[in-house]
Amino acid sequence: MVDFGGWLMPVYYTNVIDEHLTTRENAGLFDICHMGEIKIEGSKSQELVQMAVSKNIKDMPIEKVHLTVMCNETGGIIDDLTVYKLGENEYMLVTNASTKDKDLNQILKIKRELNLNDPQVKVTDISSQTAKLDLQGPMSKYILQRLTTVNLESLKFYTFVKAKILDTDAIISQSGYTGEMGYELYFSCKSALKIWNKLLSVGKKWGLKPIGLGARDTLRLECGMNLYGHEISEEIHPLQSRYGWVVSFDKEFVGKKSLEKIRDDGWTRQLVGFEMVSAGIPRNGYLVFKNTHEIGLVTSGTYSPTFKRGIGMAYVDKEYKDPDTEIIIKIRENFLNARVIKLPFYKRR
Amino acid sequence: MAKLNPKELKYTKEHEWAKVEKGVATIGITDHAQELLTSIVFVELPKIGKEVEQAKSLAVVESVKSVSDVYAPVSGQVLEVNTELSNKPELVNQDAFGEGWIAKIKIKDIKELDNLMDAKSYTEYCKKGQH
Fold first, then answer.
1. Is this structure's pTM higher than 0.90?
2. What ipTM did this prediction achieve?
């Protein structure tokens, strides 16, 4: 068990490698109740969300999910989060656990600055009432279909539907953090244990197992997905962290002016993926070299259960960002060969 | 359940074992240690000829999520390393007291062995550490 943003969570239930491969080959169930959920509703809710996040949500249809970032005035990333459009004037923001209070403060600050009052926009932290389970992996559709009457076949990637799971009102979103086909499920925390147990018992014949934080990290890393506090922080902007595609310069939002300047002036360090050529496992905080000079810093690294070698992500000086560039990772006292790789490392078939 | 700790070995508080024969100590991590670490995916072996000090880092074992030092149970010079572990680090999990050995050290001062535990004390030490 480890302390993760104030939540006591298991790194593994049985074994990280087994849990990782189970998710890739069959299905894994993740207890993600620690993540934050913020509801924003009212006639001016779109105006508030639009100013708070980088992605343009103007033409977002109901039942759509967008990945986005929330920036500060200098363009640094306060959080990476998803926006759910629940209704015409109703949004849910799903945040990281450790950043949720920061996000909430930022949203309330923007609300004051836009002179929006309570009937126009109501902001509610629903994290403590909301349970979140992620069901991920190629078998997840068959398992979840046993617990819901809604036809999962018609649910598209990054969309959701409001439906019952057993007898509980839920949001079923086809999305996730593993690179596999799967679902993120939201419902009242009162039903969490019941749904967790039911999914595990129904899913048994499809090989479903509970998955801890360890495999959650190796799964997301193989897909080149960012983790807050590692690849991204308030000192990092979205353009250098492979989040340029969630920045919409065609609308106003906090941090836009700074990001426009960064876009036009350029930046020094860029996030890349790399694999070890020599035997060794990269870890967060290791230095990156080219010949004898330091060119960067590893933000995440692991042994990859799929590729059976060390992989990682690092910020490197921009001239070394291209795939196949040979770099060196300093692991303890050893300078070991590595190679820049196009992300993601893993793409599902 | 961890395997029984062999009687002929000496143990450290950091969960290394040493088997002493003719002034040479064969060193590894205990079965209890490999259980705590789970799947070991990489072992960084010391260089042959390296002088090591008792309780200082000798090697490194890594699981998917952790990096752990292996401390030398005795001071001395590294005579041999288990190169099998470069390709099969899982030997440490499968046979911690046997094929999963890490290095052999020419013992510098035999009196240092008095600082180590016997199997009985080590087994009790592990029990105390559990909640």
1. yes
2. 0.91
